[in-house]
């Protein structure tokens, strides 16, 4: 028969209680020696033991009659132990002749110690865990009488009482020590809280925290290392050394240690390999949420006692200091921000999107009345919206609530009755599971007034110029028809006049188109058109201009593509885009026009190897009268109206137009349209 003794013997909780008795490796205990001596006299057994079974060994707290060398060693390996089976079974073990016992016949206690007969009773903790055995041993076979076993059992109970008394005493001392430690750590937290309440700055707060912690815990040296704005550099901004100590004894390698703690972002002991109770140095990250703001470092010439409770309390101290520092930084940043905001005319604001879908104001600059004509703390913004723009305002609000960037230009009627145009931009920001929206609103009433006046002037000038220019070109045609009416030398001047008149006519036509588009007076007469054929016709018309500059101009189409467009207007779109590519591409360059369709969307792209567009100017590319800075510098003529007209016509067809940089140079314009149903 074989018995597995491992599980109960190696039970971690049993071993913990065994250590807690304080009897392992202790000197002999007089009261237990009297009990082992008494049991040998009463039973006549030559050997009696109080044996505690540890992991891998049994230790004799008391032993009578044990032969050498075991009497001096006061322990044996478990290979020489009968008591381990008492613990494993948690029951008495009574053996008359171990040599005849299937379980024990091979145990080395028989030949090495002379154990033949054995009677052992379990010694249990107050919670009932078997810790060892109280046993008597004979060196010859023996039948144990009931009287003998009764005496051994009674004395085992007395040994158990002594063990329970020692456990109770140990636990009481530990509880008192823990209470004192807890109270000390509470005092540390209280001292830190008091210090931070009195601190005038982040540096002052760090110095006070170091002093409070090191002072209350009696540690020799403490430091605080602050993380710089670059999120890399650590600078020691506070240090405290107790009287009678030399800071040089502790601070030599603190910078590298602090950097290590900052990198790992976890409490770290010095030396790292030391057991928690033996560490003489400690580094603690100071956090605000998940961000490490700095590192607290403490040293002493004796172990600091870095148990779990100490680390927990000091982590709380670090969090308290981190919140203080972050608050001070936030206050300083807010004051600086408000100083900047106070110097601009725009209204700067922040709202939070609450879980129930509301917009909760967080910040608003002090000039809302100048922008909106009302105090927004007293009047909801929605109440000021001009009814004509209510739908656009609702769309903007919905975009903001979805946490997406938004842009709105709308009219608001202030408390003073004045209607103002306000341009608002909003960008979402996500912090610690919360959604904020930062925005800026600008009064653009004056810009709208100027724009309206400009449009009126453009319309007036267009109509006033159109008739004279038409007349001039008509008379020039009559002159050219009568070749004998002018001299050869005058023809050159007349041709110049004709070209300039043509330029003016194109300009007035563009201006008139814009005016009509703004007024909604231009309709599009759509019909199914072959996109490839229309694009090919435009390329054919512009090929001579491209060849004059030695440009390669190609067209690539992906089969038959049909779109519903106004042929004349969409030809105007393609002509504008392709002619721009030719105009802005230097001699020897290349222009490629492609037409394709996928998923019901037709696409035209025109790529060139021209001078390109500065990256910061793409957003303004389709504005009226806008010309890129490099086009102006190159001296390339233009009015800045073609792309504005092109965009308006494309959008009138339900399409889009966009531009992006080409590879490796130049620009790519891309137009999309719904593909016609078959």
**Quaternary status of these chains?**
single chain
Q: If you average the pLDDT, what whole number results?
A: 86
Euclidean distance between termini CA atoms: 90 Å
Which structural class do you get from the secondary structure elements? alpha+beta
Biggest beta sheet attributes? 6 strands, antiparallel
Spatially, the strands of the biggest sheet line up as 3-2-1-6-5-4
**What is the CATH first-level class name of the largest domain?**
Alpha Beta
Could you tell me the number of beta strands? 23
Here the CATH topology of the largest domain equals: Beta-Lactamase
CATH superfamily of the largest domain: GAF domain
Low-confidence stretches: none
Estimate percent helicity: 40-55%
The whole-angstrom Rg is: 47 Å
Count of discrete structural domains: 5
Q: What fraction strand?
A: 15-25%
Give the name of the CATH architecture of the largest domain: 2-Layer Sandwich
Shape type: elongated
By DSSP (H or I, 4+ residues per run), the number of helices equals: 19
């Amino acid at each position: 028969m074989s018995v597995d003794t491992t599980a109960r013997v190696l039970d971690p909780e049993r071993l913990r209680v065994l250590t807690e008795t304080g009897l392992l490796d202790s000197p002999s205990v007089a009261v237990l020696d009297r009990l082992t001596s008494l049991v040998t006299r009463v039973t006549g057994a030559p050997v009696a033991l109080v044996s505690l079974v540890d992991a891998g060994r049994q230790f004799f707290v008391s032993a009578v009659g044990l032969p050498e060398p075991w009497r001096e060693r006061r322990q044996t390996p478990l290979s020489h132990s009968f008591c381990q089976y008492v613990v494993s079974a948690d029951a008495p073990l009574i053996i008359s002749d171990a040599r005849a016992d299937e379980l024990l016949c091979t145990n080395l206690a028989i030949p090495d110690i002379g154990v033949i007969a054995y009677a052992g009773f379990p010694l249990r903790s107050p919670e009932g865990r078997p810790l060892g055995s109280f046993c008597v041993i004979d060196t010859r076979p023996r039948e144990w009488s009931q009287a003998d076993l009764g005496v051994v059992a009674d004395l085992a109970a007395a040994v158990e009482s002594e063990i329970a008394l020692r456990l109770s005493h140990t636990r009481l001392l530990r509880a008192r020590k823990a209470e004192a430690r807890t109270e000390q750590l509470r005092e540390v937290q209280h001292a830190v809280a008091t210090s931070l309440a009195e601190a005038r700055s982040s540096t002052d707060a760090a110095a006070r925290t170091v002093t409070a912690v090191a002072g209350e815990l009696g540690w020799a040296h403490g430091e605080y290392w602050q993380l710089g704005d670059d999120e890399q550099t650590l600078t020691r901004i506070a240090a405290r050394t107790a009287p009678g100590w030399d800071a040089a004894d502790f601070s030599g390698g603190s910078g590298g240690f602090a950097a290590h703690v900052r990198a790992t972002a976890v409490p770290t002991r010095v030396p790292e390999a030391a057991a928690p109770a033996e560490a003489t140095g400690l580094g603690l990250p100071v956090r605000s949420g998940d961000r490490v703001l700095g590192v607290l470092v403490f040293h002493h010439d004796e172990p600091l006692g870095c148990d779990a409770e100490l680390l927990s309390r000091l982590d709380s101290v670090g969090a308290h200091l981190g919140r203080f520092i972050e608050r001070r930084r936030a206050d300083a940043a807010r004051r600086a921000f408000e100083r900047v905001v106070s110097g601009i005319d725009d209204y700067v604001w922040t709202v939070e999107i609450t879980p129930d879908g509301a917009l909760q104001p967080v910040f608003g600059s002090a000039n809302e009345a100048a922008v909106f004509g009302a105090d927004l703390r007293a009047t909801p913004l929605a109440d000021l919206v001009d009814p004509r723009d209510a739908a656009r305002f609702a769309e903007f609000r919905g975009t903001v609530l979805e946490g997406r960037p938004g842009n709105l230009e709308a009219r608001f009627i202030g408390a003073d009755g004045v209607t103002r145009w306000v341009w608002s931009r909003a960008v979402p920001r996500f912090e610690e599971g919360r959604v904020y929206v930062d925005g800026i609103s600008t009064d653009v009433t004056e810009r709208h007034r100027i724009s309206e006046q400009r449009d009126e002037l453009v319309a007036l000038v267009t109509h006033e110029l159109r008739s004279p220019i038409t007349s001039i070109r008509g008379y020039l045609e009559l002159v050219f028809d009568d070749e004998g009416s002018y001299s050869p030398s005058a023809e050159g001047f007349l041709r110049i006049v004709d070209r300039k008149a043509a330029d003016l006519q194109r300009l007035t036509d563009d201006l008139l188109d814009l005016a009509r588009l703004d007024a909604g007076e231009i309709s599009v007469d759509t019909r199914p058109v072959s996109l490839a054929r229309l694009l090919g016709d435009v390329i054919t018309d512009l090929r001579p201009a491209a060849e004059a500059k030695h440009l390669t101009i190609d067209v690539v189409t992906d089969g038959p593509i049909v779109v519903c467009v106004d042929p004349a207007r969409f030809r105007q779109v393609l002509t504008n885009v392709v002619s721009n590519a030719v105009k802005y591409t230097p001699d020897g360059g290349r222009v490629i026009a492609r037409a394709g369709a996928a998923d019901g969307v037709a696409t035209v792209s025109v790529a060139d190897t021209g001078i390109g567009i500065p990256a910061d100017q793409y957003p303004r590319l389709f504005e009226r009268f806008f010309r890129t800075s490099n086009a102006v510098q190159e001296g390339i003529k233009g009015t800045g109206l073609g792309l504005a007209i092109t965009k308006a016509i494309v959008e009138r067809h339900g399409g889009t137009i966009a531009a992006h940089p080409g590879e490796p140079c130049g620009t790519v314009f891309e137009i999309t349209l719904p593909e016609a149903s078959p």
